Amino acid sequence: MWFEKNATIKDYVKYIFKRRGIKIGYDTGIPNQSFLKTYFSRYNNLYANIRLRVNDLIYYSLYNKDINIRFLNPLSKYDIIVFEKNFSKKAYLIASKYKNMGKKIIFDVNVNYFDSKSNYIKKQQRKGVLNFIKMTDMIITTTEYIKNYIVDNKIFSKVEYIPEIISDHFFNVKKKHYDKNNINLLYVGYAVKAIQLEIIKKEIESLNKRYGLKLILISEKPPKLNIKVPKTFIKYNQYNLPMDITKGDIFVAPRDLTESYNLGHSITKIGYPMAVGLPVVASPIPSYLKSPALICYNHENWYENLEKLINDCALRSKLGNEGINYCKKNFSKNIIMAKYIETFKKTLSRD
What we know:
By secondary structure, this protein is α/β, with parallel strands linked by helices. The protein has helices at 3-6, 9-17, 35-42, 48-61, 89-100, 123-132, 144-152, 168-171, 201-211, 241-245, 268-275, 299-311, 313-331, 333-349; strands at residues 22-27, 67-71, 80-84, 104-109, 138-141, 159-161, 183-188, 213-219, 231-235, 250-253, 280-282, 294-295.
């Protein structure tokens, strides 16, 4: 994912002249989207879903003979057009044009816009999505939860679950755990969402008084938190993220699951720290349940699991190694790209 630094002239030439493979155009809804432009200057500032589910796919497809992925260009020809979390009126018109030309349409989404109970999903958004998918041949989701929600509620039958790729660069960095005082708890994410940490405010403050803790916050700006514990802020930078994550000892991921929107979150939030060897303590989000994360269903679970990890270096190391193996097995580049290729071929083969 560090293409801005690691890309070669050969990569750029390959992008410009590659012709082989199923031709796939991605529409993100962002005007004048250019892979080469983001390659050089904008990658680190893109929305996470575009980095992970478009730019990275384009890069990884450069040397794959089966697929040829591009940002959508009206002057180019495609076999499949993928609308990445884009269901605007303009997107509908574009999709209609290609549909009438006999092209396949895929809607890729990382949010459960279909959930009428969520306070975060506006009625107009849900209405727009339901209208857009009428012309869709396939829906791709980031989680099994969203896939099952769509299928079980008979909203759409052709749905595939493809999680996000965890880049090899995360696996090239490994956290070394030591017996130490003053354990560092780690949060990574948007500043506005860091408020979720206050769900475990009492647990953090109580453990801090007993053992001495520090909270490291990796975000685009310093989060405003009412938690009485020493804090360190690190500005989010996608290129430096693996090394920055290793400054923590335990990754914490609490979520308010009374809001159904949060049930659809992907594994990536805890996948990054697991990939570099951090143990994870988290709320029971469906995508987390099969992972080595220590899952907390109540406040007692949070206190007990955090205290256990604070006092047991061997356990931190053990869970860290299990997390690395889990992520390599399920979310590495070759695993996920194979899922995309299979899905694109399946979409083309359907009438």
